[in-house]
TrEMBL record:
Gene3D superfamilies: 1.10.10.2830, 3.90.1530.30
Pfam family, one: ParB_C
Compositional bias ranges of the Basic and acidic residues kind: 30-44
Name used for this protein in its record: ParB/RepB/Spo0J family partition protein
Organism name: Pseudogemmobacter lacusdianii
Amino acid sequence: MEKKPERKGLGRGLSALMSDVNLGPATEAAPRRPDTRLAVEKLRANPLQPRKDFEPEALKALADSIRQKGVIQPLIVRPVGDYYEIVAGERRWRAAQMAQAHDVPVVIRELDDTEVLEIAIIENIQREDLNAIEEALGLRQLMDRFGHTQEKIAEALSKSRSHIANLLRLLTLPTEVQSFVREGNISAGHARALIGTPDPEAMARKIVAQGLSVRETERLVRESGGGKPGKASSGRGAAKDSDTRALEADLSAHLGMEVQIDIAGGQAGALMVRFKSLDDLDRLCQALSTVPAEMG
């Protein structure tokens, strides 16, 4: 009977979970040390896994690699009854079955459902083939489900806070524009240039139709007066300064909703938050109700 692994999962921070998943390239000279090897039939897929689709061609390529070199990066699993549930590494497990491998290396962890979901989201964020919208949605899940701040996520991912904020701002764009990014019709750079423009959908369709570069898109936005200092903005009065627009972008990224700040004159003004569903409204109400008393 195998020795029960030491309980290491609970109470750890995001950085510790990140290092556990650690999907960086492993080398044959220094592979991650597994706890043991388990037969592929002893493993089960994670029902909490947010990723449901696995590209057949990519799986086949991984299976070919496994036939030649084996599974270098161990799977993370947790014991559940008479079998082990995959916490991270389902793609490797599926490819190992295609390669007719008998067993795979594993790292066994005692984790609760919350940690399992958190690690599954982290694993997805680390995928190389992830588009910017999918990555932003993963980051948003880490913030909404687990209360992680942009600063904490940036530190764990070894990214700048501005990088995290810029990704999250993409989620304030209309669904059609986000779909263009998902499908590869426009890049994240194109999409960022459209944030704050009066009609981002029309602008995105123009980018696709004319095959505009990011620089050409930025010039087009400036010339149209869409969301840039020094131009009238949506016919709503004086142009906003860069500080106001930066604040709008930060609030939009934090809430996951479009935020508009209108300065009427002097120090007075109005802040408007656009929500797309009642769930968004509920989330906004919760965010407002948790403002510390000293800020109220």
